[in-house]
Amino acid sequence: MSTPFEALHPAVQHHVVNSLGWRSLRPLQEQSILPILEGRDVLLGAPTAGGKTEAAILPLLSRMVSEEWAGLSVLYVCPLRALLNNLHPRISGYAELVGRTAGLWHGDVGDGPRKRMLRDPPDMLLTTPESLEAMFLSRRVDAAQLLGGVRAVVVDEIHAFAGDDRGWHMLAVLDRIDALSPGRAQRLGLTATVGNPDHLLGWLSRRPVDDRETVMVHDGAVAPELTVDWVASVDNAARVIAGLHHGEKRLVFCDSRARVEELATALRRLEVTTFVSHSSLSRDERRQAEQAFAEASNCVIVSTSTLELGIDVGDLDRVIQIDSPARVSSVLQRMGRTGRRAGTKRNCLFLCTNELALLQSIAVCELIHQGWVEPVVGPPRPLHLVVQQLLARVLADGRVGDTAWPGELTDVARLAELTPAEVLEVRTELERIDVLLRDGGFVQIGQVGEERYGRRHFMDVTSLFLTEPLLKVRWGTRELGQVDPSVLTTRDGRKATILLGGRAWDVEDVDWRRGIGWVKPSEEAGRSRWSGSGVALSAVVCRAIRAVLATSVEPEGAVLTARARAQLAALRGDFDGVRDGRTMLVRDGGRNRETWWTFAGGNANAALAAGLAAANIGVMGSDDLSISMRGPVGYERLRQLLVDLRAAPPRAAPDERRIEALKFGESLPVDLALSVLAARMADEAAVVSALDEPLLSVTEV
Which residues form the Helicase C-terminal domain (predicted)? Predict the structure, then answer.
């Protein structure tokens, strides 16, 4: 055998060459063949459009044919329904080449297709973790029969799972599927660039190191084209977008749905052909927009991160980012949508509407230039997973015996560093509050559990994330999407004008009982609102911001427009005392306020602020970069306090009211729920680093 390609089944080789017309495989596809054929767990990493799907599917089809796999044998798991919809025709085409089939199963798939798949299961099934959980809970699905023959699982965009509670849920569901068959399914993860690929594979696999392999392919030495501009407002951003790159297809990312609506509306006022995509638009609205954008030219689509994860919208010329995402990996993923055609480069234009966004954009570009990417780590202490999995087992099986619990959850709990005593304490609490009822050596659903999670509400148990209480919006019979109910009326009780899908709509009527609002097109200025909070910046990004401020040198990671250079120069003047590797105390004598500029990140500053408050410092608040205090504090007093805090680094104490933001948090013992929140707010390394860094003397401003 001279090449890995020749190890594929002859039928797969034939169709790659003759049916697909490929002259060669991409590097990742070539390198993935042997470890997948050997049955190892594999992490496949490459930039966007690097051929990751084919790198997993072709060797699996080869195994399927060679080893005569029968029935449903491959699961392809994705974080987004839209991505599954996008991939299904492509994967079905590959399967059909060797006489196999691929099905699609998620919340938008109707009963008819599901019944057909239950009667005649496909060889491959594209789905989500929540849909797999629903199969276990459904009385219409024999999960053991349907899933008992699964031989391999592909997890696409695994980084999106692993950094979120959905990842813990997915691992628990996959372990339950493994328990249905004699052998353990092979696990393959597909990812874009991440900072800790070996850790990510270990998290997914948990097999011995010799039974798993990481295959990462990078995109060569061609640096991306990164540009940072200062525009000061969304309206100005719209004018810049309208005036640039005529004839090109532009994908614009905003990090909130409200900002998407605001920008899209402004672009349409400027007569720019504009499409919109975000999670609160109806499925049909999103599909129509994404299809129209894929087929059009000289247009813009404005999106949240929903279009970050590999959904095909055709060849892109430009990616534009309004302000900056909190993570370097998001920028890499987003600009990876460009530069696919010969003679083009990956590119991203940052349009910054405020000063922090300008500094953050430049800092993120500098980190990209240095080759740094965040590690992906699961949220610590997912004790609410224990609640969800125990409820799911009880609802699926009717009751669970002591000897069967925690069963398949044991390995995931150990991976998440949850102790057996804590797992037992969660079950005991569920029994105490009558969510569960003990009967001999078994537990079953209790009266409170039936009210909260019983058959009428069982779908709430299929996920580990909270959903917003949104109200549907319709224009006639056409569903437009969903909005926060509070946006439908003004403060004085009048019906409002809202923005949805990049258009303004007058609210005509609201049926609060059914949760539906009816609207009509409007020429008035509208508004939009959804709940949600921003993500705290990491210490690495904040210290990169400090490095940008602490020098007069032109940044290397991005080209700055004249406006951006002028604004950066002004900010450097405002922060003239900043030094790299130093924290700084600044006194505002006019307002009797002092600010400790730590550049330590939002979570670390919350902990440091709590430590200062405990030492009777009048803390007024904290953010990603600093902590504000009522003066006078003074340099010597603060310096001594930092020495004292270094002996016992502080941690932020979460408010009990925040428990409601943790799904199933109300069913956890309060002390355990608070321990989950505290662990997720903690950044001890950044706290210690800020306490260790020299403090510069007070500067008058």
Answer: 233-384
d(CA 440, CA 423): 19
Q: Is the peptide bond between 406 and the residue preceding it cis, with omega within 30 degrees of 0? A: yes
Average pLDDT over residues 163-183: 95
* Each residue's pLDDT tens digit, 289-324: 778 777 888 889 999 887 877 667 667 788 999 999
Beta strands in 304-406 (DSSP E): 318-322, 347-352, 400-401
Overall number of domains in the chain: 4
Angle 662-664-666 (CA atoms, 0-180°, nearest 5)? 85
Instruction: Identify the sign of the CA torsion 216, 221, 222, 225.
Output: positive
CA distances, 315 to each of 46, 280, 339, 418 (Å):
18, 25, 9, 46
Residue 107 lies in a domain: yes
CA angle 63, 128, 196 (to 5 degrees): 75
Residue 179 lies in a domain: yes
d(CA 660, CA 666): 7
CA atoms of 686 and 605, how far apart (whole Å): 9
Task: Give pLDDT, residue 589.
Answer: 66
For 432, residues 6+ apart whose C-beta sits below 8 A from its C-beta are none
- State whether 478 and 406 are in the same domain: no
pTM above 0.70, yes or no: yes
pLDDT tens for 411-431 read 999 999 999 999 999 999 999
